[in-house]
Amino acid sequence: MQTSLLESSIYALNYVAGSWLNGGYDYTRQGNSHPLISPYTVFSTVDSEYLVIGVATDAQFATFTKVLGLEHLASEPRFITNKARCENNAALHKELQSVIGSWRSAELHSIFKAHGVPFSSINSMKQLFAAPEV
């Protein structure tokens, strides 16, 4: 079996390709963020670890802010819906990073797992190959 790297890359960017093909919208570079979901990006912790957090729904955002002690953000007009969060992504990221940056990575792992907050570590090669089998 063979797989085209070009075709698999286009598939991975289905929303970007679809926006171009269906509406002529050409996305700009996004870095580590997702243009249609916010927050969906990389955050650093106090112990210099990195997490990707991808909160796709308003309900997930309410849970996410609650476990971080930031409940007020879930009712703030700039952040109340995913659309509003995307429009105000830079401000939201700044607010979240200031708090997430004060937590240890292991603490966030435990809390996020317990509450169903979508996240993943960004591992070094050493961490990746030392990880236990799942």
Which helices and strands occur, and which strands form pairs?
Layout: H1 5-12, H2 14-23, E1 40-44, E2 50-54, H3 58-67, H4 71-74, H5 82-87, H6 89-100, H7 105-115, E3 119-121, H8 125-130
Antiparallel strand pairs: 1-2, 2-3
Pairing-aware structural class of the strands and helices?
mainly alpha
Low-confidence stretches: none
Report helical residue fraction: 40-55%
Radius of gyration: 17 Å
Instruction: State the CATH superfamily name of the largest domain.
Output: formyl-coa transferase, domain 3
Number of strands: 3
Mean pLDDT: 90
Largest sheet: 3 strands, antiparallel
Q: What would CATH call the class of the largest domain?
A: Alpha Beta
Distance between the termini: 27 Å
The tally of helices reads 8
Query: Per DSSP, what share of the residues sits in E-state strands of 2 or more residues?
Result: 5-15%
Strand order of the largest sheet: 1-2-3
Order of helices and strands: HHEEHHHHHEH
Query: So, CATH architecture of the largest domain?
Result: 2-Layer Sandwich
Features:
50% helix; 3 strands; 8 helices; 2 domains; three-stranded antiparallel β-sheet; mainly alpha; 134 residues
Short précis:
The protein is mainly α. It contains eight helices and three strands. The protein has two domains: 1-30, no CATH class; 31-130, formyl-coa transferase, domain 3, CATH 3.30.1540.10.
What do these coordinates show?
With 134 residues, the protein is mainly α. 50% of the residues lie in helices and 10% in strands. It has eight helices and three strands; from the N terminus they run ααββαααααβα. The protein has helices at residues 5-12, 14-23, 58-67, 71-74, 82-87, 89-100, 105-115, 125-130, and strands at 40-44, 50-54, 119-121. Strand 1 and strand 2 form a beta hairpin.
